[in-house]
Amino acid sequence: MRRIASRAAFTLVELLVVIAIIGILIALLLPAIQAAREAARRSTCTNNLKQIGVALQAYTDVYGRFPMPGWQQDPSLGWQARYSNRTRLLPFMEQQSIYNSLTFLGFSGVEQSLMPDRVTPVENVIVPSFICPSDDAPKYHMWSGHANVNYTGSIGAQSWPSHYGAEVSQVVGVSPYSGDTQGNYFGDAPYGHGNDYEGSGTYISGVFSRGSTVVGRDWSATFADITDGTANVIAFGETRAPMCSDHGQGGWLEANSGWVAGTAPPINFPTCIGDNVPGSNIALTASTVWSQGNKLYQMDNWATNCGFKSKHPTGAQFLFCDGSVHFLKETINYDAYQRLGDRHDGRMVDAGTGAMQ
């Protein structure tokens, strides 16, 4: 009689071994998958900044300088937060239809000035080129509902004032050049709020200002103002304004609450909801970023919140005035970082490595 061989089943031990092997493979693959996804997101972010760079060049070819902000004081109107310099780039980024829906008001200057039309729905329109896909923040601001932005212009190697006496010098030390505790690192730009008070660029060591207090005297840099060379000076950088600063609620549209940033706060300095306080595992919350925590890490401390930040691991991406894009690490030498922010400090820095030349 013929015997039929029976197939032995998996034993419990063998099954557990197979499950363990599968678990190990998944554990090995997940970081690789996540890294690949972040690489793709970072590539998109790089392309966004390059598009902004092309628009900056095209704008400058037409108007002779970088796009000016819109933050002025008109005695008849009071303070007016006009449209941001990003808004002026829209026609050069295939966003002419959005630009055409804005309200214009004539002021003297190289370009007709813009006034915000509070009833327009444009402020709620998401411009994909202004959003970094690595930032998982909501696409609309939590308070204003305005469409968010992840890129802003640089005011240079200076910070805005602190409300609380918690200055950035408490983190990075007092400037060895100016002795200034409030962030005017090279002493080549008087202390201010990112404003240019004369329309001459005197108060700004970078290439953009928050605005001017004098009608018709808004300021932004020309290429001639960038005496350190366009390859050595930051034009735009990444921000996480929606979750990190009280000046982020205006989104991409507005000049004042749409934000500018400087290099005085170190890259990715924690003022954002969810960030960990340095030296601890304590995450900042919606409460502690306002009034309950260390004043250095508060969302409304202008001395530290008005810096460049990203959700990329270990650093952030920056557009330089020559149109190139570089990833700068959080560990970059602080002095070199300030030189990349300042347009006329007189010493060159390799944007790729952060090494001073």
Strand and helix layout:
Elements: H1 12-63, E1 71-74, E2 78-81, H2 85-89, H3 96-100, E3 151-156, H4 169-172, E4 195-196, E5 211-212, E6 234-238, H5 241-244, E7 261-262, H6 288-292, H7 302-305, E8 315-320, E9 325-329, H8 334-341
Parallel strand pairs: 3-7, 4-5
Antiparallel strand pairs: 1-2, 3-6, 6-8, 8-9
Strand order of the largest sheet: 7-3-6-8-9
Low-confidence stretches: 106-119
Instruction: Output the radius of gyration.
Output: 24 Å
- The level of helicity is 10-25%
Strand elements, count: 9
Please, what is the average pLDDT? 81
Shape: globular
Q: Which sequence of SSEs, written as H and E, runs from N to C?
A: HEEHHEHEEEHEHHEEH
Structure write-up:
This protein has 357 residues and is an alpha/beta fold. The chain is 24% helix and 10% strand. It is built from 8 helices and 9 strands. The chain has helices at residues 12-63, 85-89, 96-100, 169-172, 241-244, 288-292, 302-305, 334-341, and strands spanning 71-74, 78-81, 151-156, 195-196, 211-212, 234-238, 261-262, 315-320, 325-329. The chain has a 5-stranded mixed β-sheet. Strands 1-2 form a two-stranded antiparallel sheet. Strands 4-5 form a two-stranded parallel sheet. A hairpin with a 4-residue loop joins strand 8 (315-320) and strand 9. The chain is globular and about 85 Å long. The relative contact order is 0.15. Residues 106-119 have low confidence and may be disordered.
